[in-house]
Design brief:
By secondary structure, the protein is mainly alpha-helical. It has 14 helices and two strands, in the order ααααααβαααααβααα.
């Protein structure tokens, strides 16, 4: 078992066969839309793809660590929105400086991640149930805090609008994609080259054997959910910088896009195998798909159908891959 974990540990940051297949699929998908629609061939379309990718990408980076343990997090999208709503509400009602608003937004996400970790690691509640409950709690809190009112973040030309330049240029090019790449590199190194990453992969591969080897598996489960929470908060900041106006109840479905990206990229739903590089490729596939479908004339309900099929195919492929490994 030790050799198997070391092998996975060393190869986490590399492109494996599934990542190469996903990369090929991304290129083919992009070229298909590029060929089928002349209006797809513009810098604005590329900007739209990046817009769709970076806040979902933050969610996907975080939940990669959770899925690597064999867990799941269904609270991603709702906590993203609740974090942003809380930060924006405090900004308007207590005249907080924007830097503090950003910190609070990230902290709210991190605290929800900690709550998920305690429920799963300490109280032994099944991850699906625990995070579904957290999703509902977060949605309710967001509505209560804001009194079901829209929260508006500062515009770029306002004194506190500087935060938008972190994620977008003045001509609306989403520089947030570069922030995403930075965090992907950092978290890829953590997953592939540190004790935290090694133990997270080990407990996902064989939790009981990892526990018997002296590792505090509950601690590393908790850490994985806290990491996910941090990125939910960061995604909340990114979302606020992109859309400015946020409504309670938004964000449902973001978790499916993020989890689909993770699975497409080669992270196994049963745990023990993970790739941040693969996750980024998977997120880009989802972003290209969702951006490109309207360009070939498909209505929104068809877009939802195709996205659902992609998720099902990714899950089935993961199930059969796991059976083949067994």
């Amino acid at each position: 078992m030790e050799n198997e974990v070391k092998k996975k540990y060393k190869s986490t940051f590399k492109l494996g066969s599934q990542q190469l297949v996903a990369l090929g699929a991304l290129i083919v998908l992009y070229l298909y839309f590029f060929t089928m629609s002349p209006s797809f061939r513009s810098i604005n379309t590329l900007a739209s793809i990046f817009d769709s990718a970076y806040y979902i990408g933050f969610l996907a980076i975080g939940v990669t660590f959770v899925i690597a343990t064999g867990g799941i997090d269904l609270s991603l999208g709702t906590v993203l929105i609740t974090s942003a709503l809380t930060g924006g509400w405090l900004y308007h009602n207590y005249s907080l400086p924007m830097w503090m608003t950003i910190i609070i937004t990230i902290l709210v996400g991190t605290m929800f991640g900690l709550l998920n970790g305690v429920l799963v690691a300490k109280l032994k509640i099944a991850p699906f149930i625990a995070t579904l409950g957290t999703q509902m709690v977060a949605r309710g809190l967001g509505s209560i805090i804001t009194n079901v009112q829209t929260v508006v973040f500062p515009l770029r030309n306002s004194p506190d609008g500087w935060y938008k330049s972190i994620f977008k240029t003045s001509n609306n090019f989403p520089t947030g994609i570069f922030v995403l790449i930075f965090f992907a590199i950092v978290m890829g190194i953590i997953l592939a080259k540190t004790k935290v990453g090694r133990y997270i992969l080990a407990l996902g591969s064989n939790e009981e054997a990892t526990r018997l080897s002296g590792v505090n598996v509950d601690r590393y489960k908790l850490i994985s959910y806290v990491i996910s929470g941090f990125f939910m908060g960061l995604a909340g900041v990114a979302y606020a910088s992109t859309y400015t106006t946020i409504l309670p109840g938004e964000g449902l479905g973001f978790e499916l896009d993020a989890i689909a990206g993770v699975i497409i990229g080669g992270t196994s739903l049963v745990g023990g195998v993970a790739s941040i590089t693969g996750t980024m490729i998977g997120v880009m596939i989802m972003a290209v798909l969702q951006t490109g479908l309207p360009y070939i004339g498909l209505q929104p309900h068809y877009q939802v159908l195709i996205t659902g099929i992609v998720i099902l195919v990714a899950v089935l492929a993961d199930v059969y891959k796991f059976k083949w490994r067994k």
